[in-house]
């Protein structure tokens, strides 16, 4: 087996021995596809197959089927694989009804799905907490079903999660201003399972494979979006891309003992603001975005006290970033530079050059350090 086949993100997952699962967004897309098909044909496809952003075509068994004169509903039980996900086993439902021609696709929050009440998220206040990628997936699958059956594709999609409001109490939704239930999430449709010890071991193996292949530049990425950004920036091969997830410290400590010439760290602005503040574990259960810290950094970048106060009370790190962007304060660059400094301190003089890329949810670089 060549080095390319042994390294990279997919090899890391295989090495852990953990079973991946499906996001709430994938489940909602499957339920929507089944419901809309039944609305047009009278029959529910079971199992129902969908196509995910990276080309996987999983099939989902239906747990709920209901067809009425008003619309069609289908439900899928979420399987999170071996990830300790609070939504594992939750029943995700989608109810689809036809709308007048020209209406497009309209999303509604049903029982157990939250509503956005504060700024700083990738959705407007008042919108159902169905994130952009799941919305896009559902729209694409509605278009495919409509095209297959000569329909217009103008529908209302109401997503709900049984007991979602109760489950959401175990998440950070309330603090983010998402009220009434869960968020429908997922950028790839796949839940990557994390066992701390297994994933850290896979990171180490990824570094070993890259070094054995003679690579001098590797990148620690927090997820699939940051991985795409690094590909675009540096054109690195798969085996140079380490899926570090939340384990920034694991990457830095192993590279300290097994150096490469260059290490790029790429991740979301909010996550990397935690590294900038000195946290090596970026998981939301173990570290939080420190808005007071961001306010202090913004002051160094020229923010006045009014802006610093708004940053300190912002709902999310992303909102703090947007406030600074609107006033020309380079908060993204400041966070990236401080994160690089923290990384270098962990490396303790190891012969490794470090650069940091902070990105927004769309993968746009918002800070370089």
Overview of the molecule:
The chain has about 375 residues and is an alpha/beta fold. About 40% of the residues lie in helices and about 20% in strands. It has 14 helices and 18 strands. The chain has helices at about 5, 10-15, 25-40, 130-150, 165-170, 175, 195-210, 225-235, 250-255, 270-275, 290-300, 305-310, 315-325, 330-345, and strands at about 20, 50, 60, 65, 70-75, 90-100, 105-110, 110-115, 115, 155-160, 180, 180, 190, 215-220, 240-245, 260-270, 355-360, 365-369. The strands form six sheets. A five-stranded mixed beta sheet has the order 4-5-6-10-7. The chain has a five-stranded mixed beta sheet with strand order 15-14-16-17-18, with helices on both faces. Strand 14 (about 215-220), helix 8 and strand 15 form a beta-alpha-beta unit. Helix 3 (about 25-40) runs parallel beside helix 4 (about 130-150) and helix 10 (about 270-275) packs across helix 14. The chain is globular. The chain starts with a helix and ends with a strand. Residues about 1-5 have low confidence and may be disordered.
Shape: globular
Count up the helices. 14
Helix share bin: 40-55%
How would you sum up the major sheet?
A: 5 strands, mixed
Could you tell me the strand content as a percent range? 15-25%
Uncertain runs with pLDDT below 50, 5 residues or more? Answer: 1-5
Number of E-type strands: 18
Instruction: Please give the alpha-carbon distance between the first and last residues.
Output: 37 Å
Radius of gyration: 22 Å
Structural class: alpha/beta
Strand order of the largest sheet: 4-5-6-10-7
Would you tell me the overall average pLDDT? 90
């Amino acid at each position: 087996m060549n080095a390319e086949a042994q390294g990279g993100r997919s090899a890391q997952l295989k090495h852990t021995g953990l079973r991946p699962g499906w996001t709430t967004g994938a489940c909602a897309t499957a339920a929507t596809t089944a419901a809309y098909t039944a609305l047009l044909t009278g029959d529910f496809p079971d199992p129902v197959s969908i196509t995910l952003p990276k080309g996987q075509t999983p099939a989902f068994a239906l747990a709920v089927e209901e067809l009425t004169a008003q619309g069609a509903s289908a439900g899928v039980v979420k399987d999170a694989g071996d990830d300790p996900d609070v939504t594992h086993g939750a029943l995700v439902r989608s109810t689809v009804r036809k709308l007048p021609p020209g209406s497009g696709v309209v999303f509604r929050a049903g029982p157990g799905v939250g509503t956005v009440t504060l700024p700083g998220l990738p959705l407007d206040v008042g919108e159902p907490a169905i994130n952009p990628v799941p919305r896009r997936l559902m729209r694409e699958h509605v278009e495919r079903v409509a095209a297959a059956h000569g329909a217009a594709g103008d529908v209302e999609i109401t997503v709900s999660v049984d007991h979602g409001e109760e489950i959401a109490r175990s998440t950070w939704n309330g603090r983010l201003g998402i009220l009434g239930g869960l968020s429908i999430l997922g950028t790839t449709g796949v839940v990557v399972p994390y066992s701390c010890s297994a994933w850290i071991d896979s990171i180490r193996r990824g570094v070993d494979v890259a070094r054995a292949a003679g690579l001098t530049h590797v990148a620690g990425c927090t997820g699939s979006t940051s991985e795409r950004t690094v590909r675009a920036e540096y054109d690195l091969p798969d085996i140079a891309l380490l899926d570090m997830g939340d384990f920034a410290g694991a990457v830095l400590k192993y590279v300290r003992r097994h150096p490469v010439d260059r290490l790029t760290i790429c991740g979301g602005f909010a996550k990397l603001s935690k590294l900038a503040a000195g946290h090596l574990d970026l998981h939301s259960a173990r570290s939080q975005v420190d808005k007071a810290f961001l306010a202090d950094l913004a002051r160094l970048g020229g923010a006045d006290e009014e802006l610093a106060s708004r940053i300190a009370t912002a709902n999310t790190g992303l909102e703090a970033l947007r406030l600074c962007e609107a006033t020309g304060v380079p908060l993204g660059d400041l966070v990236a530079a401080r994160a690089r400094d923290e990384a270098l301190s962990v490396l303790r003089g190891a012969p490794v050059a470090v650069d940091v890329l902070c990105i927004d949810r769309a993968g746009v670089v918002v800070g370089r350090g």
